[in-house]
Amino acid sequence: MAAAGGIDEFELIARVFAPLAADGALGLTDDAAFYRPRPGRDLVLTKDEVVSGVHFFADDPWDAVARKALRVNLSDLAAKGASPVGYLLALGLPKDFTVDQIDALGAGLAADQAAYGLSLYGGDTVRSPAGLTLSVTAIGEVRQGGMVRRGGARAGDTIVVTGTIGDAALGLALRLDPALSGRLGLPDVHRDHLLDRYLLPRPRGALATAVADCASGGMDISDGLVGDLGKMAAASGVAIDIDADRVPLSGAAQAAVAADPRLLAVALTGGDDYELALSIPEAKVAAFLAAAAAAGIGAVPIGRARAGEGIAVRGNHPALADLGSGSYRHF
């Protein structure tokens, strides 16, 4: 990559990325890296990309964008029951980036590497005429044969979700319409909570072992609770019933829905939650809920898998009559 922002590609690697590198990355001086999994462990690989104007706003701070790019991948690993070990990063930089921005990006990655226990193994840096992009390939480990699959749900399983649902989708609505918070009468603390949940997901890696031990099926909620559970139902060959009254909403989301009941549909279908949706055999539900409580993470049963196909959302709320496709559509 040619020089830009007062720094060229090799200076960028030495300044920002070499300090983040794992031992197997060889100081980012080679064309590839190596990683040797521990005996009895499988590697779990996942890849997600975030693009300016699609997954974040062009004026979002680069440290937060970097953390979001990493965290959406860590969320996928957690849903598979895998613990993170490292990642690869493909970075597309706009022509007018500054050294301060790239330093902030590196600081964001460093903070989350320390928080979540993983290191950089390599990647690539290119010019991006469409704005900042970050494509992360995350690498995790799980016991051999233990990866939890989207298609593992079985009739009779309990459907459990972590955290709260809909905060990020409502936060996006506030970003797109800055006057919405005032019309809803949201206090600043509720507005700020929703905006923060859109900007910075909370991957549930602390529950990876419990997911591997307890869940028969699982995925993270990235495109909307209803739509993503519909994908799980289809992949597993079961039907899933959800009780809308049991879906956990934060105080901020409850306040928004109370002010405008139509926003419940946004919360249930809007995406960017990055919480876990798990199918757990009845005999293991208590153990999983106890593990979540010990980790300080909320977890709530919201429904059940049964023989059949499709997804049904039950409840008397008028917003449930029109949930559309149930999820964000990428194309």
Automatic annotation (TrEMBL):
Mg(2+) 5 binds at D223. Mg(2+) 1 binds at D48, D124. Residues 30-142 form the PurM-like N-terminal domain. Its EC number is 2.7.4.16. Mg(2+) 4 binds at D31, T46, D76. It catalyses: thiamine phosphate + ATP = thiamine diphosphate + ADP. It comes from the Bacteria. One of its GO terms (molecular function) is ATP binding. Residues 154-314 form the PurM-like C-terminal domain. GO terms for biological process: thiamine biosynthetic process; thiamine diphosphate biosynthetic process. InterPro entries: PurM-like_C_dom, PurM-like_C_sf, PurM-like_N, PurM-like_N_sf, ThiL-like. Pathway: Cofactor biosynthesis; thiamine diphosphate biosynthesis; thiamine diphosphate from thiamine phosphate: step 1/1. Mg(2+) 3 binds at D31, D76, D220. ATP binds at G123, D124, R150, S222. Mg(2+) 2 binds at D48, D76. Substrate binds at H55, D272, Y328. Keywords: ATP-binding, Kinase, Magnesium, Metal-binding, Nucleotide-binding, Thiamine biosynthesis, Transferase. Belongs to the thiamine-monophosphate kinase family. Reaction mechanism of ThiL seems to utilize a direct, inline transfer of the gamma-phosphate of ATP to TMP rather than a phosphorylated enzyme intermediate. Catalyzes the ATP-dependent phosphorylation of thiamine-monophosphate (TMP) to form thiamine-pyrophosphate (TPP), the active form of vitamin B1. This is Thiamine-monophosphate kinase. It comes from uncultured Pleomorphomonas sp. The gene is thiL.
